[in-house]
Amino acid sequence: MLLMKDIIRDGHPTLRKVAKEVSIPPAAEDIEILKSMEEFLINSQDPKISEKYGLRAGVGLAAPQINVSKRMFVMRVTDEKGQEFNYSFINPKIISHSVEKSYLTSGEGCLSVDRSIPGYVLRHARITVRGYDKKGEEIKLRLRGIPAIVFQHELDHLNGVMFYDHINQENPFQLTEKAIPIEN
Ligand code: UDB
Ligand code: ZN
C-alpha cells in the first residue's frame, strides 16, 4: 500500500515536470498504479487506517506526486450537497470553463507540501472535463464547487504547477475579481 513516504515533496523535480500522456487502452501497469492511488485515498479517509499509518486525509492524488510522471490522477470528494465524486482520470482535459471564478475560503494545501501557505487560489467556478477511466472508456463531466477545485488542483500537478503559484505574492488574500467563496 502507498504511504506518506511514497509521496514526493515540494522541491522534488518531478513536481515541476509536464507529465506524459498515457496510451489508451491503459497498460496493466498504469491500471495498477491508479488502483494503488485510489486505495491511498480510501485508506487516508478512514479514521482508523489513517491514524495507524499516519496518513493525511486526501481528496485527490496525481501520479507525479508518487514520482510517476504520467497524466493520471484520482479524486474522491463529497460536494456541499453530499454527492460523491470518485473518479480516476487518464489524460484529463478541461474542454470548457466559466468566466466566473471560485476559491476555497480557507485556501488550499497539498499532500506534497508540508507547510501551510496562506492565500486564495482562484479557480474556474465551473468546468466541463473529458478524459478516460481505468477501462479506457471516455468520461465527460460537468463539475462545480469543491469537485471542480479538486480537479483543477490535480490537473495542475500534471502540468508542473503548484497551488501556491496562483497566490498573489503582495497580498495573498486580495480578490482581484469577483469570485464565489466556497466554505470547507
Ligand atoms: C488534499 N485535503 O487532499 F474542500 F471535505 C487536502 C490536504 C492536503 C489538506 C490533505 C483537502 O483539501 N480536503 C478537503 C477539502 C475540501 C473539503 C473537504 C476536504 N489535497 C489533495 C492534494 O494535495 N492533491 O494533490 C489538496 C486539496 C486542496 C484543494 C483541492 C485539493
Ligand atoms: Zn496537491
Q: Encode the helix/strand succession as letters.
A: HHEEEEEEEHE
Unreliable runs: none
**Principal-axes shape call:** globular
Residues in helices, as a percent range:
10-25%
**Number of separate strands:** 8
Radius of gyration: 16 Å
Q: Spatial order of the strands in the main sheet?
A: 1-2-3-6-7
Instruction: Please outline the major beta sheet.
Output: 5 strands, antiparallel
For the termini, the CA-CA separation is: 28 Å
Number of helices: 3
Q: Report the structural category.
A: alpha+beta
Nearest-integer average pLDDT: 98
Percent in strands: 25-35%
The distinct ligands, each listed once, are: ligand UDB, zinc ion
In brief:
With 184 residues, the protein is of the alpha+beta class.
Any overview of this molecule?
The chain is α+β, with helices and mostly antiparallel strands and 184 residues long. It has three helices and eight strands, in the order H-H-E-E-E-E-E-E-E-H-E. The strands form two sheets. A five-stranded antiparallel beta sheet has the order 1-2-3-6-7. A hairpin with a 5-residue loop joins strand 2 and strand 3. It is globular and about 45 Å long. The model has no long low-confidence stretch (mean pLDDT 98). Bound molecules: ligand UDB and zinc ion. Ligand UDB binds next to strand 1 and helix 3. One of its GO terms (molecular function) is peptide deformylase activity. It catalyses: N-terminal N-formyl-L-methionyl-[peptide] + H2O = N-terminal L-methionyl-[peptide] + formate.
